[in-house]
Specification:
- By secondary structure, the chain is an all-alpha fold.
- The protein contains four helices and no strands.
- α3 runs antiparallel to α4.
- It is globular and about 35 Å long.
- The relative contact order is 0.16.
Length: 89
């Protein structure tokens, strides 16, 4: 049987590609499960922008065991995400 290519839930990888529960999603992102598409549109807007939330998911909180390998992997990717700054005048 041919190996299947992994498909992302959205254009870029996010916590939604990692079997997250609605409760974990709310705790990590602050978005209700029903607003997950809004989360994807507003937060996951570049190839590595969703990686920090993935690090938090595997960081041993929110009902998932700590996974150092995944934390390290996505931590490196999260550092590649563009930094966004908001200014208030």
């Amino acid at each position: 049987m041919a190996e299947q290519k992994k498909e992302f839930f959205w254009k870029y990888e996010s916590v939604l590609d990692h079997d997250i529960t609605p409760e974990q999603f709310k705790a990590i992102t602050g978005f209700d499960w029903e607003r997950r598409f809004e989360y994807l549109q507003s937060v996951v807007n570049s190839p590595y922008a969703g990686c920090l939330d993935i690090v938090v998911l595997y960081g041993g909180r929110y009902g998932r065991p700590y996974n150092k390998k995944m934390c390290d992997k996505y931590g490196v990717l999260a550092n590649k995400a563009p930094m966004v700054m908001d200014y208030c005048f």
